[in-house]
Amino acid sequence: MQVLKFGGTSVANSKNISLVKDIVATNADQQAIVVVSALGGITDLLLQTAALASDQHTAYKEILKEIEDRHLQTIKELLPIHSQSKVLSRVKSELNILETLLEGAFLIGEITPKLSDKIVSYGELLSSYIISEFFISKGLNATYKDSRELIKTDTAYGKALVDFELTNRLCNDFFNDHTANVTVMAGFIASSKQGDSTTLGRGGSDFSAAIIAAAVNAEILQIWTDVSGMYTANPKIVKQAKAIPHISYEEAMELSHFGAKVLYAPTIQPVLTKGISIVIKNTFEPEASGTLITQSKNEQGKTVRGISHVGNIALLSLEGPGMVGIPGISKRFFEVLSLAEISVVLITQASSEHSICVGISALDIDKAVALVNSAFEYEIERNKIKPVIAEKDMAIIALVGDNMKSHQGLSGKMFSTLGRNNVNIRAIAQGASERNISAVISEGDVKKALNSLHEEFFEENIKQLNLFVMGVGNVGSKFLRQIQQQKKYLKDNLKLNIRVIGISNSRTMLFDETGITLKNWEERLANGEKANQEEFMARVKQLNYRNSIFVDNTASSEVSDTYTNYLKNSISVVTCNKIACSSAYDTYRELKHLAREYGSPFLFETNVGAGLPIIDTLKNLIASGDKVLKIQAVLSGSLNFIFNNFNKTNTFSDIVEQAMAEGYTEPDPKIDLSGIDVMRKILILARESGNVLELADIENQSFLPEESLNTTNNEDFFQALEKYEDDFQKLYNDAVAADSKLKYVAQYENGKASVGLQQIPKGHDFYNLEGSDNIVLFYTERYPNQPMIIKGAGAGADVTASGIFADIIRIGNF
Ligand code: ADP
Ligand code: ASP
Ligand code: MG
């Protein structure tokens, strides 16, 4: 004998019920009991209609109509016309009784738990009857049996307790001389000794199947549902979750107790006692092997087998000086809750005994607060204990595994993973069996917490980085292209899975939680919603992904002003925008401080020398105890390009225009030519070397004529350059005469920095600097005479994009 249970989705409509029939038919070589749920969603509708009726809302009739329609339509689609009338007439007469019950609740304006159970029982009553008739019409040797005649309970309506002795006897008596091949029964419902309908708790059809399987000593209990087994985490929330091939009864029980609703927690106990295996299978993918639940131990030695969560939890904390060393406080506290039938899901008590904190269902919190406060009224009045504190909107997440007890450091890993992702932990508990470690967190953090923990414990190496990209001009679009090209390599080789979740330019923005396909982002962005900085940030926060990185490819101060807010929410910031690091020192210091405090990297390698690893090298020197004595550098790729190409045969303004066209300058070329850009870069290097310096402290003798410096747009600027062409030619000729080249040099020494055009003689490190290259000489205590030199392409959208990319990878390896 085997028992097969099909859940709500599996029997939601005629199409699915046909799949169920196929599965049952292929199993038909031995006797089977088929336990079914109500058609998907019907139990909720029944509860709704009952609630409306008892509130005397006539709207209950509409829901009742919907319930009727779904059943009648299913019958019409499943059964051949000639067998329809019998089934339709029986179902209609059942629905009439249901209607009468609801009318009763409506007239009295009240519903008792007993009536409520009677009403919801119709879901399974109807589905099981219809399915049995369908099986018969398809030629299966099938019968229908009313579960209420076999499963007997007490009268705790809503979640009745099973009388196993009586139930087992009734089941045995019935099945011992039962010949039908397939017996279809309703899940979820049972009856009291007086014969009234009772129910076994939401999700209880699994339990019905287990009770029957244990009673008849079935060979196996098959739970057919809408996912391919019990997963490492709820697959609806964690996309990377995988079905667990084999798990122990205890692990499965712990996971389902903490919210893995694929199996109703009480289901395990009856089959565990009899050593009957459970297999969880997918009705919609019957070939997938699913999950096998048995007594056998966790052979692979895996420590954490799954992660689950229960939502809708409230925390109740009792604390006060009067609790220390006074025996009996906990007893009174738990007694109050237990007398009110409030079940405690999680308990923590600080070792100081100063406080007790429990997690209970949020539905019970108001009642619990009132009861506890009144029980401790005497102590509260005398300030020995504070009025109880309630916190709502909480959830419990639990790591579960039989082998967890023999491994140290798992809780440390769990909490540091959560901490790194800015998930605040309100309470912690470790089950006495050491089979689970649970933490109470805010409901809004559940998705992020589950995904981060899943990544940490199951995806072993693959780490997901979630990018939010602001600015898709020259640099930004190259950056996106590089990600697209490198995505596979990074995943295969660096175990980094980079997903772009949000993109914005100044006009529109686009979000896609599953990751934006980088092939056609331009088109999708153009059709995106209206861009808005604040809304963009609000969405990043609301999505609340782990390893979120905000990437700024703009040159806008409006964007750099938002960094603090991102960092405070543990969202890393990668930027090629120099404004933040080169504005007031306090801003720079604050950003670095926030990055440390919230564990969210703030990286800006491309602020100096585009993709060259200048800042990273400097950081490594300092971190390893070196000290910077002097920096000499050519840091403007654009100025280097301009002075390398400017000569007698062309004009200065033409060369500037060419540099601009090739993407070597800022959108406003004056920022480069005036030296401001180089000032910002040497300022950043000086600051990164550990000095407190402001932009105004840097000396700048500009080579530009005053008139061009005062222009306010590019057109006027270029006109001014043309006007002073002779001056530029003179600069060039003087340098040639001195056998030198013109280089725009930045320097830092003894707390002072300066920038300016210099004639560089032959033989100097800077003399042969090609094209738009940059060079930096770091003179340090370890490199006092022969400086450490970093040299290479220092401007251009491609190298800048790859520098941003490198920062992203640094965060990935963090
Ligand atoms: P049925 O109606 O078949 O009884 P349920 O809706 O009760 O199905 O249970 C299946 C659902 O359980 C899945 O669709 C999934 O959303 C949820 N679930 C939660 N945690 C897990 C988990 N760890 N593994 C698989 N499913 C899970
Ligand atoms: N139909 C019931 C419910 O929705 C029982 C079940 O499906 O397991 O809770
Ligand atoms: Mg279920």
From TrEMBL:
Keywords: Amino-acid biosynthesis, ATP-binding, Kinase, Lysine biosynthesis, Metal-binding, Methionine biosynthesis, Multifunctional enzyme, NAD, NADP, Nucleotide-binding, Oxidoreductase, Sodium, Threonine biosynthesis, Transferase. One of its GO terms (molecular function) is homoserine dehydrogenase activity. Residues 399-477 form the ACT domain. It comes from the Bacteria. It holds the Pfam family Homoserine_dh. Its cofactor is a metal cation. Gene3D superfamilies: Acetylglutamate kinase-like, Aspartokinase, catalytic domain, Dihydrodipicolinate Reductase, domain 2, NAD(P)-binding Rossmann-like Domain, VC0802-like. It catalyses: L-homoserine + NAD(+) = L-aspartate 4-semialdehyde + NADH + H(+); L-homoserine + NADP(+) = L-aspartate 4-semialdehyde + NADPH + H(+); L-aspartate + ATP = 4-phospho-L-aspartate + ADP. One of its GO terms (biological process) is methionine biosynthetic process. Pathway: Amino-acid biosynthesis; L-lysine biosynthesis via DAP pathway; (S)-tetrahydrodipicolinate from L-aspartate: step 1/4; Amino-acid biosynthesis; L-threonine biosynthesis; L-threonine from L-aspartate: step 3/5; Amino-acid biosynthesis; L-threonine biosynthesis; L-threonine from L-aspartate: step 1/5; Amino-acid biosynthesis; L-methionine biosynthesis via de novo pathway; L-homoserine from L-aspartate: step 3/3. Its EC number is 1.1.1.3, 2.7.2.4. In the C-terminal section; belongs to the homoserine dehydrogenase family. In the N-terminal section; belongs to the aspartokinase family. PANTHER family: HOMOSERINE DEHYDROGENASE, PTHR43070. Homotetramer. Bifunctional aspartate kinase and homoserine dehydrogenase that catalyzes the first and the third steps toward the synthesis of lysine, methionine and threonine from aspartate. This is Bifunctional aspartate kinase/homoserine dehydrogenase I.
